[in-house]
Fold this protein.
Amino acid sequence: MQIKKSAKVHYVESLLLAAAGVSVHGFSTRHEGVSRPPYNSLNLGLSTLDSSHNVEGNRSILTRAFGARYEKLVTVTQVHGNDLLVLDEPNEDFSHFQKLECDGIVTNQPGVMIGVCVADCVPVLLLDPNKRVIAALHAGWKGTAEGIVRKGVEAMVGFFGSEPGAILAAIGPAIGPCCYQVDTPVAEAFRKAGTQFESFAQAAGPGKWQLDLVEANRNQLLRAGLEEGHVETSGFCVSCEKDLFFSYRRDNGETGRQMGFIMLQGKK
């Protein structure tokens, strides 16, 4: 992945998704917005204590930078679960979905920008360039343990006829294992789900582990049928990169949100 600029907005672009040539996408940084500290400056999260006017202004900046219509930016109320919103028909205003409680969006509708907001959790973008289907998924530790990215792949297959081997995945900037320590309840949640917790978590003392959420989701995508070369990771730890990204843990909860977003090009 690489940092690029569209209009005035700096963002992280997936080389894998860009090469497919059918979408605009990215993972936003914290720069070029209107929010004041501690949300400075491109805070895209409506769940923060930042002014809603600032967040709406920032979302307008983002959509304009990528040629999207503001009213066709679709986000939801994320609750750290694994439920998905599937959009399979045209609509002129998607704002009513903002209050829907789920953690992923899947669609085949061109011109609709779907996004998930994060400040440590893992944003995952999926693209099937053959069937022209996209997904944006929010994977915190709970969503990861409950298989949110696997469910995203299953929705693309079940609703739109995608083949897992054709799906491309971009796993965006998230908190790295260097900065993310978890305890026994987290470990037990993963083990209960039947995953090999120790394959992406390193012991850090009695009842403590350094958890690699990015690797956990990459592993889940491969087990869902994606090819190894079809999964790209960013290499950024949002907690380490204070100048680039918001981090909930690093900033003790007083921080903004970046967004992983994707939109199919063309008209239907």
In short: The mean pLDDT is 94. The domain at 2-175+214-264 is CATH 3.60.140.10 (CNF1/YfiH-like putative cysteine hydrolases).
